[in-house]
Amino acid sequence: MEELLKEYEKVWAIGYSLALMGWDSETYMPEGSARERGEASAALVALKQSILTSEKFLDFVERANEEASNDVERGIVRVLRRALKYYTRVPVELLREEERVTNEAKIAWRKAKKRADFNAFRPYLERIVEIKREEAEHLGYENHPYDALLDLYEEGFTVKDADQLFSGLKPLTKELERILSSGWPQEHPLEEAPYDAVRMRELNERVLGILGFEREYQRLDASAHPFTEGIGLYDVRITTWYHGKDFRRSLLATVHEFGHSLYERGCDPSLWKTPVCGGVSLGVHESQSRFWENYIARSRAFSSLITPLVKEYLGLDVSPDDVFTYFNLVRPSTIRVEADEVTYNFHIMLRYELEKGLIEGSLEVKELPQAWNEKMEEYLGITPPNDAEGVLQDIHWSLGAMGYFPTYSIGTVLAVQIGRKMEEDLDLPSLVSEGNFSPIREWLREKIHRWGSVYPPKELVRRALGEDLDPKAFVDYVKVKYR
Ligand code: MG
After folding, report:
1. DSSP H helical segments within 278-335, as ranges?
2. Strand pairing of 235-240 and 218-222?
């Protein structure tokens, strides 16, 4: 184990460098450096792979497996074996082909989206689906080829789990109808209220300070799409965006990314530089961001906390009620990233069903736009005006990321379960309205963050909450909150 971890330090250092380069390329890198950066990154990725798949390293992993005598050591072996499974089972020619196709597909997708022309993207997507199906065969699965792809993003999560999750969320259809016919607000004048970007940035910083953002180890910047980059345990960076109006978008994105960054920062320092330091899966990661964004920032208590700050920084004359309403509008929209809490999961359900169809072969790429629009009509009662606002809206497929979307719903549901569990121990409304977030951060650190990836996601959730992923908890939460 000792030798293994010593050798792994090289991989860790490469990962550290790649993360910093990735963050930089989305924030401050001069545009003209993109190609050079791409080549440098590709070389580092190849170097990392060659260390991980070397005879020496494979041997270390097998010997460590025999020696592993506690949860951390077993976790280290588990995480490494998962990484190795991908590199050793999928032929290198297929990986290279995917790299080549997705590099072209990214550009084709951007152009196709701009012109709302699905047919321009279609041949690329057809090839990507073929590659993904081949990849699933190489990776192996028990019941469904899509299981192999889901597992890449959410360890141990299968079609059976996903079917259970989404069928458990179907009662939201009724709730949505009820909410819309009850006169719950769908629009708010604050959506159009302009703000000064410098002041908005200051407000974001102020709110982050209250939440417990550690400027010694974390920083906030701006990018085209908000993201979090855990460069190391002691360097976690987040970004947000500024549109000049509709301050909710900037603030909630900032709070969302804060949740991701807190998870990365909360790993126990004894796990530093090991393969188990850092979030265990995309679903669990998203539960952390969604907890802060939805359960905390969309609460009444948080509205009262920030109302004076909104007045002070943005000069808007608002009441806590205004802020709460504005943060919790429910309005079916064609765009996933603009969706509210109630409609969000339908966007994911739709993508899940289509992806599953593509991978199992029951749906062809050419049928996608129509299938997309039909489901949109079925779930949300709206039809996208064109494919740019429909089937072409997300970047994921062009990157070859299939099996990724369900993790958004896992996180959204899990966030509510975490909040409910936490309320058994803490008086959240009081803590939040006082701006006293340290008991909340501590609870999360103790139950979830400190474990890094020591336990697989399902086991971590069971240990932390004493229950499994439960869509009913989310439906109940919506029923109560939006009454
Ligand atoms: Mg996120």
Report:
1. 282-290, 300-314, 320-327
2. parallel
Of 154, 257, 264, 355, catalytic: 257
In this structure, which amino acid lies at residue 427?
A: D
pTM over 0.85: yes
Q: Could you identify the residue written with the tokens 């229950």?
A: 467
Other beta carbons within 10 angstroms of residue 388's beta carbon come to: 18
Known active-site residue 155: no
Task: State in Å: Cα 287 to ligand 1 middle.
Answer: 8
143-160 b/e with 16+ CB inside 10 Å = b?
ebbbbbbbbbbbbebbbe
CB atoms within 10 A of CB 349: 22
- State the distance from the centre of ligand 1 to the C-alpha of 381, rounded, in angstroms: 26
The count of C-alpha atoms lying within 13 angstroms of the C-alpha of 89, restricted to the half-sphere facing its C-beta, is 16
Q: How far apart are CA 336 and CA 3, in angstroms?
A: 46
Specify the amino acid at residue 136. A
Q: Output the 3-class SS for 83-148.
A: HHHHHHHCCHHHHHHHHHHHHHHHHHHHHHHHHCCHHHHHHHHHHHHHHHHHHHHHHCCCCCHHHH
Q: Which two tokens stand for residue 481?
A: 């909150």
CA 354/CA 412 separation, integer angstroms: 20
Q: Which residues share a beta bridge with 235?
A: 232
In whole angstroms, give the CA distance from residue 251 to residue 256. Answer: 9
pLDDT tens, residue by residue, 102-153: 989 999 999 999 999 999 999 999 999 999 999 999 999 999 999 999 999 9
Q: Are 453 and 459 in contact (CB under 8 A)?
A: no
How far apart are the C-alpha atoms of 4 and 12, rounded to whole Å? 12
| Start-to-end CA span in the chain (Å) | 55
Q: How far is the CA of 227 from the centre of ligand 1 (A)?
A: 7
CA dist 68 → 65, 73, 82, 83, 188 (Å): 5, 5, 16, 18, 57
163 contact partners, CB below 8 Å, separation of at least 6: none
The encoded tokens of residue 190 equal 């604050």
Find, among 141, 166, 138, the residue nearest to 151 by Cα: 141
Give the sheet arrangement for strand 228-232, strand by strand: 218-222, 235-240, 228-232
For 271-320, write each residue's pLDDT tens digit: 999 999 999 999 999 999 999 999 999 999 999 999 999 999 999 999 99
CA 232 – CA 238 distance, rounded (Å): 13
* Å from CA of 256 to ligand 1 middle: 7
